[in-house]
Amino acid sequence: MSVPTGKSIAPPSRESNIREDLRVSAATTVGTAIEWYDYFLYAAAAGLVFKELHFAPLGQAAATLVAFLSVGLSFIFRPLGAVLAGHFGDKWGRRKILMITLIMMGSATTLIGLLPTYNSIGIAAPILLIFLRIVQGFSAGGEWGGAVLMAVEHAPDHRRGVMGAAPQVGVPAGLLMSSGVLAIMSYIAPGEAFMQWGWRVPFLLSFVLIIVGIFIRHGVDESPVFEEIAARKSNVNMPVVKLFKRHGVLVILLALVFAGNGAAGYMTTGGFIQNYATDPTGPIGLQRSDVLNAVTLSAASWLVFTLLAGIVSDYIGRRATYIIGFIIQILGILALFPLVNTASIGYLTLGLVLLSIGLGLTYGQQSALYAELFPASVRFSGVSVTYAIGAILGGAFAPTIATALLQNTGTTSSITVYLVAMSALGLLAILLLRDRKGIPLGPEHEKLQRLSPVRGIGTTDYAKVKMD
Questions:
Q1: Is the pTM of this model over 0.85?
Q2: Could you tell me the CATH number of the domain that includes residue 69?
Q3: Which burial class, exposed, middle or buried, applies to 361 when counting CB atoms under 10 A from its CB (0-12, 13-18, 19+)?
Q4: Which helix (H) or strand (E) holds 366?
Q5: CB 24 within 8 A of CB 163
Q6: Other CB atoms closer than 10 Å to residue 400's CB: what's the count?
Q7: Does a structural domain hold residue 3?
Q8: Cβ(426)–Cβ(358) under 8 Å?
Q9: Among 252, 272, 281, residue whose Cα is nearest residue 393
Q10: Is residue 48 part of a domain?
């Protein structure tokens, strides 16, 4: 049952200043793009660079697995970052946390670009690399929730989907940027030059991006919902404890929704396809620059359909958009490896673009969905922690699992089964949730927001809840 909207349960939404909306959208998109540029840059470099420069003494197969494990390791620390960011974000505000996470992520990425290799300093090289990756994971855990709430809580009711898509668009934009810069450096410093110094340039570029991000985010006002919470002095002392006590089932279901998207998405964002398609000892053996170009094109497609999903969800609802998206995503997964295994760069590009359509349609509406399902008092904690758990279940070790499946079965069919199963779990989870498009987000409507959005749990009679 959808939540009734309109005058029957809520006053008309506030008139949004177009200039402020554009400023918020730009700040969340650009800031998130910079954060995920840093995050995805590491994932791509893990299979292309770090397995040789930092983990080579382990041997080819083990080095590849460990490199991808280092990608997934950061996800373990994302919940810690999410818990702390959610706790302080619900108490101090969204804007401060976003500035802290941006600086943390950019600093770690810049230092990776300066890090010596195993041949220079021995075992200290992979240890320092893994430490900096953990810092990236800690930062990523707090970034997304703050960006989402800045976008959605500034938005008028009827535009939450499209404004909430702004930080979502920042994720494929980050992939587009990281893949694009790596591709450019592959041309500027081909072959051995790329391994010697070319890979470092994209990491060092992060220092410039930090300055840009700080400048853009500095001019954005705090979320109006948080300002109202602060004015009412209705901050919760232990928001994470309250979150799991009252909304544990919701957290699990929403984590599965994101996991259904993340497992397939991390075939490229986690670097698996890049490594699989360019491995000279493997069945594909394509050129690194060609594959990076294909990933860049697919990221552009992912960006477009992410924005489209946000727009569409404002008309047909978040839940319906997800259902359509997961069906299309499963079809894209079934087509992916048959196209990649042709060893044709054209078919590989087609496979990645087809997959990105479903990825976008199961991602663009996520900000609005999450924000509308959690009460105002625990919303930062709710969206941040849920996102981090979903990232672990779906994306953290997807490249490692795919690599292990390939090494043990000798076929990509096993990977396809794994990805379809994860997408099916996401589809099942969204079917168990109600759509609450347009529900009031302010703290004065907390009684309405606390009603269970999980089908079969709690009251479903939203219309009888009296507004304060």
A1: no
A2: 1.20.1250.20
A3: buried
A4: helix 366-373
A5: yes
A6: 22
A7: no
A8: no
A9: 252
A10: yes
**Number of neighbours of residue 13 by Cβ within 10 angstroms:** 16
Exposure pattern of 374-387 as b/e (b: 16+ CB <10 Å)?
bbbbbbbbbbbbbb
Is 288 within 8 Å of 343 (Cβ atoms)? no
pLDDT digits (tens, 9 = 90+) for 337-370: 999 999 999 999 999 999 999 999 999 999 999 9
d(CA 118, CA 76): 25
Could you identify the residue written with the tokens 């994306």? 395
pLDDT average, residue stretch 178-183:
86
Domain that holds residue 209: 18-220+234-455
DSSP 433: B
HSE-CB of 347 using CA atoms within 13 angstroms: 13
State both tokens at 97.
Answer: 């946390």
- The domain total for the chain is 1
Any domain includes 180 = yes
Q: What's phi and psi for 433, nearest 5 deg?
A: -110, 155
pLDDT in tens, 296-342: 899 899 999 999 999 999 999 999 999 999 999 999 999 999 999 99
Reading the block at residue 22, the tokens are 């554009």
Closest CA to 166 of 27, 287, 271, 373: 27
CA pair distance 88, 370, nearest whole angstrom: 19
At 12 the three-state DSSP class reads coil
- Kindly provide the residue ranges of all beta strands, DSSP E only, lying in 91-179, ordered along the sequence: none
